[in-house]
Amino acid sequence: MKVKVLISVVIVLLGLAAGAYFFRPHNFHGTVIQSPDPAYNFTLTGAKGQVSLSDFRGKLVLLYFGYTFCPDICPATLANVGQALRLLGDKAGDVQVIMVSLDPGRDTPAKLAEYVAHFHPSFLGVTGAQEEIDKVASLYGIFYQKTAGSANTDYLIDHTATLLVVDREGYLKLVFPFGVSAEEIADDLKYMLKQ
Amino acid sequence: MNKYFLHGLYGLLGVIMLSAIAFKIFQPIQVLPRMHLAPAFNLIDQDGKPLTSEALRGQFVIFTFAYSHCPAPCYGIFETLQDVQSRLDEAQLEGIPVTFVTISFDPQRDTPAVLNAYAQSIGADTQRWKFATTTNQTLLKTIIGSGFEVYYERKEDGNFAFDPTFVLVDGWGIVRAEYRYATEVSNADRILRHLGVLAEEVRNSKGTAKLAYEAAHLFLCYAP
Questions:
Q1: Collapsing DSSP states into helix, strand and coil, what is residue B49?
Q2: For residues B150 and B65, is the Cβ–Cβ distance under 8 A?
Q3: CA–CA separation, B174 vs B60, rounded Å?
Q4: What residues have CB less than 8 Å from A43, skipping those under 6 apart?
Q5: Residues A42, A53: contact at Cβ < 8 Å?
Q6: CATH number 3.40.30.10 is the correct assignment for the domain at A28-194
Q7: I need a surface site. Which of A123, B11, B24, B171 has the fewest CB within 10 A?
Q8: What is the average pLDDT across B3-15?
Q9: Hey, of A1, A27, A33, A102, which one would you mutate to test binding to chain B, going by the most B CBs within 10 A of its CB?
Q10: What is the residue extent of each domain of chain A?
Q11: More confident: B219 or A20
């Protein structure tokens, strides 16, 4: 009898441990937003025509705001995002990365397409009229302003370097700070893709 | 053996459900929801200096929206903020800075000089309390209307119809509370209590404590 009790106790404990493991909440590396409203549905121009956020309903969308003259932060972040997509393997097809240019004066759609392709073939680069870029950036919490650059770059653009994730239903769900690693991005995306 | 396994499974599910229900009912930790991103902006303040959303990162910011020609007492907005300003110690912020930003939707009349005089007239400490706007009316509408989701419209007599609102934004630029005049109790007590709840979360934003706070978010344990 004692053996049976002991076995049942062990089973319950193992069950609890397994349950705690399988039902544990995912520890997000980014900050989770519980927005009741869908993310702002912009329409901007890519190399192959108009691109709207709503075109990608059903996929996760990673939004990054930057510019092709960006000397350090943008290439570092986009390289990490590219690596994260490679870590996702087959599931990368359910994720669309869009880089919104903060430098519509210099970033043409063709130039953006060439730039983002260095990081991953599926990335899209979009731009538009200054007024629309101002609106999109503001509504996604992205501050930016021109600053003096070198003779080579003419001017630089200081900008908020967060990486944003819009879920399959079009709601902003996650904000990654600058410096997040490819593994951390992939970990959160994997979890969101399972939901 | 099969019976014990089932008992174990039921026991496990029971414990998980009970602990989830207990967490939800007793709410050992309360948080403020992460509602949405606050809009980014680049405004000009009452001293003619730039006031950017980026410069306010790392601080709690209470945004209000008004204009200097607003007929007094202007829905009591400034009385409430003055009350919060004088009682900030109650929130136990332990060094986390709090800034008040009043954005004017009347840039034609509210030049920096007018805003400065207005700030003085209502006894605002402009080190902590900024008054700002931008002459780019399109962007202003984007920031206030779409970004902060606050309605305003110029009437024929030059005055404004608007929804008096307080918006509390955390150090990451995320809106954590909105107090709307028509639907919410927008008094200083509530704002101060919420500042305290936010500060508590910031103090516990690392390690195991962070997990408990994320659970509070998951179970929607929101401070009233």
A1: coil
A2: yes
A3: 10
A4: A50, A51, A52, A128
A5: yes
A6: yes
A7: B24
A8: 78
A9: A33
A10: 28-194
A11: B219
Instruction: Tokens for B96, please give them.
Output: 């986390």
Rg of chain B, C-alpha, whole Å: 21
Q: What is the per-residue pLDDT for A120? A: 94
Q: Are strands B160-162 and B36-37 parallel, antiparallel or unpaired?
A: unpaired
In angstroms, rounded to a whole number, what is the distance separating the alpha carbons of residues A99 and A79? 12
**Cα(B21)–Cα(B218) distance, rounded to whole angstroms?**
12
Contact A119, A82 (CB under 8 A): yes
- Least CB–CB distance from A25: residue in B7, B38, B214: B214
B182 vs B55, residue with greater confidence: B55
Chain B partners within 8 Å of A19 (Cβ): 12-13, 15-16
User: Given a cut of 90, is residue A153 above it in pLDDT?
Assistant: no
pLDDT at residue number B170: 94
Q: What percent of chain B has pLDDT over 90?
A: 54
pLDDT of B39-87, one tens digit each?
999 999 999 999 999 999 999 999 999 999 988 668 788 888 888 988 9
Q: CB of A41 within 8 Å of any CB in chain B?
A: no
Choose the mutation target among A13, A23, A34 for the interface with B, i.e. most B CBs under 10 Å: A34
pLDDT band at A59 (very low <50, low <70, confident <90, very high): very high
Three-class SS of A91-149? HHHHEEEEEEECCCCCCCHHHHHHHHHCCCCCCEEEECCHHHHHHHHHHCCCCEEEEEC
Cβ neighbours around B201 below 10 Å, total: 21
Q: Quote the tokens at residue B31.
A: 């948080």
CA distance B96 to B171: 9
Torsion over CA: B15, B18, B19, B20 (sign)? positive
Taking the CA atoms of residue B86, residue B90, residue B93 and residue B98 in that order, the dihedral angle to the nearest 10 degrees is -20
Tell me, rounded to whole angstroms, the distance of Cα A54 from its chain centroid: 16
Closest approach of B157 to chain A, Cα-based (Å): 29
Q: Read off the tokens for B180.
A: 């709307």
Beta strand extents in B105-164 (DSSP E only): 129-133, 152-154, 160-162
Confidence category of residue B123, pLDDT binned at 50, 70, 90: confident
